[in-house]
Design brief:
Elements lengths: L16 H8 L5 E2 L11 H12 L10 H15 L8 E4 L2 H12 L5 E4 L5 H9 L3 E4 L3 E3 L2 E3 L2 H8 L4 E7 L11 H13 L3 E5 L25 E5 L13 E4 L3 H13 L7 H13 L1 H24 L5 E3 L6 E5 L7 H12 L1 E2 L1 E2 L10 E5 L4 H16 L2
Parallel strand pairs: 1-13, 3-4, 3-7, 7-8, 8-9
Antiparallel strand pairs: 2-10, 5-6, 9-10, 11-12, 12-15, 14-15
Helix pairs in contact: 2-9, 3-9, 4-5, 4-8, 6-7, 10-12, 11-12
The structure holds pyridoxal-5'-phosphate.
Pyridoxal-5'-phosphate binds next to helix 4.
Length: 388
């Protein structure tokens, strides 16, 4: 994989000195936090965008048939899914979609199920739209996370529970939910008439022979499900890409379509359209190479932890390009741990408690970067904690 050498000169969230100062207390920290990659995007995507820019005119764009053909080539070959054009609503971002969905189908003070530790913006969006969170915390046994289905049944059965946001695959713990687990979730939501919202943004980065299952595979069982997805993470395009939501239920979908229309959302732009079409048509080889590289980076971390007999544990990811590191054997205070590890190693990772208190004493490291940087980072972290 080719590293983007200009990363540190670009105005990216991940390297923004003000954010580094704010979150890590140090502008010079090595940023291994925000979930985007340090790899150059695929060559066919770069070439298609360069060609488009040379056209010079940038009028209003729409998504032509070739776009939908390319999209369905990707979804059918990867996920055995054919997306119907009318089932899709385009959105500027997944977090935008979540706010619209919750406002359209739930009321103030209704409860929404989350499975912490989980992507923090789920919590933030629920709070912003003044709904409540009901937790179905993940269980961690023998170094692997799973769903507490008994608790999920109870939470889904509560009078005030109206929706669930599933992270599939799960950020930050890296689980790729199995077909059986997804079916159980769908059944529980159906029995309790809970709207199931599945965030599938990490669906393409599936590691070590695992297989991704979309909740859309169960749309025949239950219509009240919405998938929010995008290929932004897959191809390192968060700065130019938009997202979409897929909602099989026609009547409810129309409610949402009207809400989006009200604010004139869902347009595209020249570069997003071109980049995604190229990605769908020609991104396969790059993605295979990426997955191979990420698996290698996971293995390097495992190797370094074992070699040094470190007390840090790696929760081996089944998907995503984040690793979830367990420091519970070493520390007993999450904030002190975060500040000690960050200041002494010089590595900027996400503190586990940012993902909910269930993430306390863990850290999330973004490993979509060079092998050298991954090895250097984990060696530094091992060294500083070994002094305790
Ligand atoms: C699970 C998950 N959903 C959504 C997003 C962000 O998506 P968007 O930028 O489209 O809001 C992220 C980014 O890290 C994520 O991990």
């Amino acid at each position: 994989m080719k590293i983007d050498k200009h990363l540190h000169q670009l105005p990216l969230t991940k390297t923004n000195p003000d954010f580094l100062e704010q979150f890590f207390g140090n502008k010079e920290i090595i940023p291994m936090w925000v979930a985007d990659m340090e790899f150059e995007t695929a060559k066919p995507i770069q070439e298609a965008m360069i060609e488009r820019i040379q056209d010079l005119g940038f009028g209003y764009e729409y998504r032509p048939e070739s776009y939908f053909r390319a999209m369905n080539k990707w979804y059918s070959s990867h996920y055995d899914l054919i997306l119907q054009k009318e089932e899709i609503i385009f959105s500027p971002s997944i977090t935008t979609s979540l706010a619209f969905i919750l406002e359209a189908f739930t009321d103030k003070n209704d409860s929404i199920i989350l499975q912490p530790p989980v992507f923090m913006e789920f919590r933030d969006v629920i709070r912003k739209v003044r709904r409540k969170i009901v937790k179905n915390p993940l269980k961690l046994e023998k170094n692997r996370y799973s769903i507490d289905f008994k608790d999920l049944e109870e939470k889904a059965g509560l009078e005030e529970t109206k929706a669930m946001i599933l992270c599939n695959p799960h950020n930050p713990v890296g689980r790729v939910w199995t077909p059986q687990e997804i079916e159980n979730i769908v059944k529980i939501c159906k029995e309790n008439n809970v709207l199931l919202i599945s965030d599938e943004i990490h669906k393409d980065i599936i590691l070590f022979g695992n297989t991704f299952t979309s909740v859309l595979q169960f749309a025949g069982l239950y219509e009240n499900i919405i998938v929010c997805t995008s290929e932004a993470k897959t191809f390192n395009l968060p700065g130019i890409s938009d997202s979409m939501l897929i909602f099989p239920d026609k009547e409810k979908r129309n409610i949402l379509k009207n809400a989006f229309k009200k604010y004139n959302l869902g347009r595209t732009n020249a570069l997003t359209r071109i980049a995604l079409e190229a990605a769908y048509n020609e991104g396969d080889n790059w993605l295979k190479e990426l997955i191979f590289y990420i698996e290698d980076n996971v293995n390097l971390i495992l190797f370094e932890l074992e070699r040094s007999h470190s007390k840090i544990r790696l929760i081996k990811p089944e998907g995503t390009y984040q690793v979830w590191l367990d420091f519970r054997e070493i520390f007993d205070d999450s904030k002190k741990m975060f500040s000690f590890v960050t200041q002494n190693s010089g590595i900027g990772m996400n503190a586990g408690h940012w993902f909910g208190r269930e993430g306390a004493l863990f850290m999330r490291m973004n490993i979509a970067t060079s092998r050298d940087q991954v090895v250097e980072a984990i060696q530094k972290i091992i060294k500083v904690v070994s002094q305790i």
